[in-house]
Amino acid sequence: MSVWGEARMVAAKDLRIELRSRVALAQILPFGLIVILLFAFALDPDRGLLPRVAPGLFWVAVLLAALLALGRSFSIEQQWNARDGLRIAGLDGGAIFLGKAAAIATELFVLEVVLGAGVVLLYDVSVHGLGILLLSAVAATIGLAATGTLYGVLAAGLRLRETLLPLLLLPVVAPVMLGATRAFEDGLQGSPGDAWPWIALLAIFAVLYTAIGVLAFGSLWEEA
Amino acid sequence: MPLVVKLRSVVCLLGRFPALAGIDLDVAPGELVLLSGPNGAGKTTVLRLIAGLVPPRSGHAEVFGHDLYEDRISARRRLALVGHETFCYDELTVRENLRFIARAADVSGDVRRVVDDVVATTGLGEVAGVLHARLSAGQRRRLALGAALVRDPELYLLDEPHAGLDADGRAVLNNVLAGARSRGRTIVMASHELELAREIASREVRIEAGMASEVPQQQPVTEAIR
């Protein structure tokens, strides 16, 4: 089977497990909504502030929810030692990386649509430049999923993985948070031209970490 | 004929603890080798070493001619490990788990038919559509066996395969092992059920304190333990 075929198989397996377990739908998604809601409560006295800071709050909520999705993606491999089953099957490490990252990206896209609707409703945000928003969301999501999958496997074999993963990941994804927030601000303010450098930053980050992941994941998976 | 497994003075560490302290083991094609020995002697580590899941620290380790320092992945594609855990996913059914393993291992032919055959052979027909999370311990043991059988590799590594199986389950296991041997497969099995295992083993190797020693074939099991 080709690397793409193996990656598709791993992604389909992860998504099927998430659909069955409903962890993403019943826990991660509500968690993201609660974060959005809490920001709204915290900043309510100054309603004018919420639309201005909405892009940053949106991406912070996505990032916090992504941490849960990443932890979940690797915990399903620990149960019944399924990770060893994948290793013995001889699946390509790059394919496992692409499959897991694709499944996480898919979950994050769904999350972003729901959280985006929540932000529009709760923060009184007017949506402009939908194309720019979509493009930056795609690039940022791929970057988050690729980086998270790479750091997720680094932490997977450690006893303190739940607390270590955020500590490792949050500083690394700072460029994604910055780029996505700025691109969203420019998109929402109706100045899409200003967003392109940020989208370029997000795209470079996504490509770079996807390439590193494809090359390095296999060795890390072996040692995890 | 080249050996399936060739270990020479292999040392394995689990953390700082030497789980294997310079073990020698040869397994020829078609053999069923029984690994006996007390708890904590290193039987599971030997199986995991051969499966390429535990790296050797020193010594020479080859499986199907592949050096375990250099190329564990090529060796793994030709073997299956039935361990204490099923390597399956709670949220997938028995059939879905087997299908996933078959596809991951790139099993040739009609995967659905292969899976159906394995489900029938392991007696999991009634629970084929049941989630792994809802299986009993015995059914999980059968599924673990099925997960190996679905790939039908050249080398089966079995870690306490009799544990948790009822009489029917043991009959299934014996059928599976007999079938595998008739197809010329090699089997390395760690077991405490010595009487059952000795009936089918071609030879016995005792593992103790991380070292291996051949048990003479005529020697009664109880004497070998002493």
Instruction: Extract low-pLDDT stretches of chain A.
Output: none
Number of helices of chain A: 9
Residue fraction in strands of chain B: 25-35%
* Biggest interface, CB < 8 A: A-B, 22 and 31 residues
> Can you summarize the main beta sheet of chain B?
6 strands, mixed
Largest sheet of chain A: none
- Backbone structural class of chain A: mainly alpha
Spatial ordering of strands, largest sheet of chain B: 6-7-8-3-9-10
What can you tell me about this protein's structure?
The complex is a heterodimer of chains A (224) and B (226). With 224 residues, chain A is mostly helical. Chain A has nine helices and no strands. In chain A, α3 (49-78) packs parallel to α6 (130-156). The longest helix of chain A is centred in the middle third of the chain and has 31 residues, at 93-123. The two termini of chain A are 24 Å apart. The mean pLDDT of chain A is 90. Chain B has eight helices and ten strands. The model of chain B is unreliable at 220-226 (pLDDT under 50). Chain B is an alpha/beta fold and 226 residues long. In chain B, 49% of the residues are buried. In chain B, β7, α6 (167-182) and β8 form a beta-alpha-beta unit. Chain B has helices at 43-50, 72-76, 94-104, 111-121, 137-149, 167-182, 194-200, 221-225, and strands at residues 5-14, 17-27, 32-36, 58-63, 66-67, 79-82, 155-159, 186-190, 203-208, 211-215. In chain B, α5 (137-149) runs parallel beside α6. The termini of chain B are far apart. At the A-B interface, α1 and α4 of A face α2, β6 and α3 of B.
